[in-house]
């Protein structure tokens, strides 16, 4: 019996974020479809490795009294997030047990895979990562072993001057690079590397039929508008409440934090990871400022209203433009035209996604070729 080739992925699956967990799950499923055995490096940033560390990070620079007040508010949320996401990772992802936090931890890894891959999400975002982290560019993998990038993201439209030279040096070691946004292709072209391919996020590479298996059968008898909000914004809240009222629908809020239960809408507090899929799958409309909630809404053929400030909306703008849904970007909190608008025609949207999926499959087949 021929032994399966193996690919090891480094990505951000340990972030307590629904999109991050689900893109890792999708990546694993995609490599399985391609006939590869896969696992994930247990990369864990030290400053977010535990609820206590996360509290310390959030309260850095505050007075002692303020730190205690915030700790009492934040710790229960961080504990619950830890429980939900660790449970998901343990049950659904194959992760190397050895944790890697510092650079020297990566040097101790036993490298026995045929291919190493930088996965999706904002793996190359120096802002999020508090600097340029060479291990996320597979710096610990020797030159003789194949290195690829699948749907990686810089999380911004251009690099800062200080990171360009090192980024170029690290990326030149890859045999194949694909990125999640068209701006990523431009960044790599500007570095003089070229040949980067723009592909879908892994969650979009797998279609509605795949995700429907994880959406559950418990569809609410009562139609609802779903709010998934990452950034505090009172105007956003006011708009969602008024939109649901005008539509005559219940408002449901997927809360990433316990304290969000005080906001408008029926609170679903830090649910299991697949409940994120289910709530979007069964919603009448999703109102969100999240890339992955927008992406899942599009993939599930659920009407979506995408809210984002122009200066920080590159990822959202990119996916809406790709599928011809730029008009689903809410540009004014006084615009309630979506209330009476016709439902999105997803036939052309699905055709575009199928075309883009073929680009993704072609890239991956070529990238992993022996």
3D structure, described in words:
The chain is built from 13 helices and 13 strands. By secondary structure, it is of the alpha/beta class. The strands form two sheets. It has a seven-stranded parallel beta sheet with strand order 3-2-1-4-5-6-7. It has a six-stranded parallel beta sheet with strand order 10-9-8-11-12-13, with helices on both faces. α9 links the parallel β8 and β9. α10 packs across α11. The longest helix has 29 residues. It is globular. The chain starts with 5 loop residues before the first strand and ends with a helix.
What is shown here, in short?
This protein is of the alpha/beta class and 370 residues long.
Summarize the helices and strands and which ones pair or pack.
Layout: E1 6-10, H1 18-33, E2 37-43, H2 51-58, H3 64-92, E3 95-100, H4 103-107, E4 115-118, E5 146-152, H5 161-171, E6 176-179, H6 182-190, E7 197-198, H7 202-205, H8 208-212, E8 224-228, H9 234-247, E9 250-255, E10 266-269, H10 273-282, E11 285-288, H11 291-300, E12 303-307, H12 314-322, E13 329-330, H13 346-368
Parallel strand pairs: 1-2, 1-4, 2-3, 4-5, 5-6, 6-7, 8-9, 8-11, 9-10, 11-12, 12-13
Helix pairs in contact: 2-3, 10-11
């Amino acid at each position: 019996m021929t032994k399966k080739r193996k690919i090891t992925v480094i990505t951000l699956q340990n972030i307590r974020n629904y999109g991050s967990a689900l893109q890792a799950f999708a990546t694993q499923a995609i490599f399985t479809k391609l006939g590869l055995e896969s696992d994930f490096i247990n990369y864990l940033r030290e400053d977010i490795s535990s609820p206590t560390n996360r509290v310390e990070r959030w309260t850095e620079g505050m007075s002692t009294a303020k730190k205690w007040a915030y700790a009492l508010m934040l710790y229960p949320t961080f504990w619950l997030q830890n429980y939900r996401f660790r449970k998901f990772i343990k049950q659904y992802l194959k992760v190397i047990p050895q944790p890697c936090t510092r650079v020297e931890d990566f040097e101790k890894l036993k490298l026995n895979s045929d291919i190493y891959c930088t996965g999706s999400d904002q793996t190359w975002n120096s802002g999020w990562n508090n600097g340029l982290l060479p291990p996320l560019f597979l710096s610990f993998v020797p030159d003789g072993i194949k290195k690829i990038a699948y749907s990686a993201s810089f999380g911004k439209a251009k690099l800062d001057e200080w990171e360009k030279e090192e980024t170029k040096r690290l990326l030149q070691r890859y045999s194949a690079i694909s990125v999640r946004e068209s701006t990523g292709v431009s960044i790599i072209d500007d570095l003089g590397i070229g040949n980067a391919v723009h592909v879908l996020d892994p969650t979009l590479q797998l279609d509605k039929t795949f995700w429907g298996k994880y959406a559950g059968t418990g569809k609410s008898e009562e139609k609802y508008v779903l709010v998934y909000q990452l950034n505090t914004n009172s105007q956003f809240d006011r708009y969602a409440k008024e939109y649901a009222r005008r539509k005559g629908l219940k408002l449901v809020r997927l809360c990433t934090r316990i304290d969000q239960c005080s906001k408008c809408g029926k609170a679903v507090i830090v649910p299991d990871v697949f409940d994120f899929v289910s709530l979007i799958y069964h919603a009448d409309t999703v109102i969100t400022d999240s890339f992955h909630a927008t992406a899942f809404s599009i993939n599930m053929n659920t009407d979506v209203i995408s809210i984002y400030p122009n200066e920080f909306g590159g990822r959202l703008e990119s996916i809406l433009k790709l599928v011809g849904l730029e008009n689903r970007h809410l540009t004014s909190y006084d615009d309630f035209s979506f209330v009476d608008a016709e439902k999105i025609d997803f036939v052309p949207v699905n055709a575009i996604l199928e075309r883009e999926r073929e680009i993704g499959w072609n890239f991956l087949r070529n990238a992993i070729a022996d």
